[in-house]
Write a structure and sequence with these properties.
Elements lengths: L6 H17 L15 H16 L18 H13 L8 H14 L2 H12 L5 E4 L15 E5 L2 E8 L10 E7 L10 E7 L5 E6 L8 E12 L3 E2 L5 H16 L2 H17 L1 E2 L2 E2 L4 H30 L6 H24 L17 H14 L4 H12 L12
Helix pairs in contact: 1-3, 3-7, 4-5, 4-6, 6-9, 7-8, 7-9, 8-9, 9-10, 9-11
Length: 400
């Protein structure tokens, strides 16, 4: 197996690395203490994405006519690797870039592609996801938000929950029930909803991290043009599953795990055991080595998927494997960090005793939530077992 890139790609890597050395944004003191939805934090994040896009490094594989570079997957993979290496800030428009953008490229009309895709890339418009509801989380097909087609408009009523970014998002890609009499996986449609539409109410939810990343969203007679329907009427489940595939790949990105593990190694060098760096302790080294092997396994799994994409082979259940393995590994990395910190583990960024800016207690709680988001680990195991390994379906409870 040859894991080296051809010379022309390595030359491209050197150009990306040089650009990042000159353009990587500084991290002003106090930035970490800004609220998740603080306008200053959001504007700074948008500026970084615009700068990266103007350099040609955002969604490079998208078609040129929609703002991409038409580049191959190896080129994009190099950019992703170098962003990790440089510890670059995440992109605020990731949900648009990784989820709704690819879905529109696959299912959207030409008008929808030209209207929405370029603004996703420049962070001019930020997206949120309207899937989960109070009684339709893991069982998403039980959703009850209704959309009645009246003339050329849908009238939307209902509620969504756990909606990331809704308090500052410009648009939502949303699942609604358009045929209440159809079986639950049918009669669902996929709409693009302007978050500034009359009748939309957003209430942030305080997470255990103290952040306001999730939200409740209510729709009261919200009007949505029929032209914002993606795919066929009542056939939104197919479109939704395409988006879920992209979401699981996003949540399961090996680059995110590599960044987190690199931060753990830095922490181990910072902490001490009996007057020496913790990284010199044999027990700590053994635990780091065990995690390092899992991180490397993820990286090679990502290379295998890269090869499948290049050769045009179907990726099967890879997205579920990515999501399951990476979210649980990320959480295990944070558990190791808290063990290193000992009695200082619970100190948040507000505490003068916080180590590493109080990062790790927040990461611990956040990664626990990611095991649930995008389909729980239990759901991913069912998908892998039933669709990937051909095991018998899990017995379903019989109606009473």
């Amino acid at each position: 197996m040859d894991l080296t890139y051809p010379p022309q790609y390595e030359a491209f890597r050197r150009r990306v690395r040089a650009w990042l050395r000159k353009n990587l944004p500084s991290r002003p003191r106090g930035l970490a203490k800004l609220a998740f939805d603080d306008p200053r934090r959001i504007e700074r994040a948008k500026q970084w994405q615009r700068k990266l896009y103007e350099a040609g490094y955002v969604a490079m594989s998208w078609p040129k006519e929609y703002g991409g570079q038409g580049a191959d997957v190896l080129t994009q993979a190099i950019v992703d690797e170098e962003l990790v290496r440089a510890q670059a800030p995440p992109l605020i428009g990731q949900m648009g870039i990784q989820m709704v953008g690819p879905t529109l490229i696959q299912f959207g009309t030409e008008e929808q592609k030209r209207r929405f895709l370029p603004r996703i890339l420049t962070a001019e418009e930020i997206w949120c996801q309207g899937y989960s509801e109070p009684n339709a989380g893991s069982d998403l097909a039980s959703l009850q938000t209704r959309a009645e087609l009246v003339g050329d408009e849908f009238i939307v009523n209902g509620q969504k929950i756990w909606t990331s970014n809704a308090q500052f998002a410009d648009w939502m890609f949303c699942l609604v029930r358009t045929d209440p009499h159809a079986p639950k996986h049918h009669g669902i449609s996929y709409l693009l909803i302007d978050m500034k539409s009359p009748g939309i109410s957003v209430r942030p939810l305080i997470q255990m991290t103290g952040e306001r990343g999730f939200n409740e969203v209510w729709f009261e007679n919200v009007r949505v043009p029929r032209s914002h329907l993606v795919g066929e009427l009542h056939q939104g489940w197919q479109v939704a599953n395409a988006t879920l595939l992209h979401e699981r790949n996003m949540l399961g990105a090996a680059t995110t795990t590599q960044q987190l593990f690199a931060a753990l190694v830095r922490l181990a060098k910072l902490c001490t055991r009996q007057g020496r760096s913790a990284v010199e302790d044999p027990v700590v080294r053994q635990r780091l080595a065990a995690l390092a092997m899992r991180v490397e396994a993820m990286r090679y799994h990502a290379y295998r998927q890269l090869t499948d994409t290049i050769l045009g082979r179907p990726r099967g259940i890879a997205a579920s494997v990515n999501k399951l393995v990476s979210t649980e590994l990320n959480h295990d990395i944070t558990v190791c960090a808290l063990n290193l910190l000992g009695s200082y583990a619970t100190q948040t960024s507000e505490s003068k005793f916080a180590v590493d800016g109080g990062r790790w207690i927040r990461e611990f709680m956040f990664t626990l939530g990611m095991i649930i988001g995008g389909g729980t680990s239990e759901i991913q195991k069912n998908i892998i077992g039933e669709r990937g390994l051909g095991l018998p379906r899990e017995p379903r409870a019989l109606p009473e």
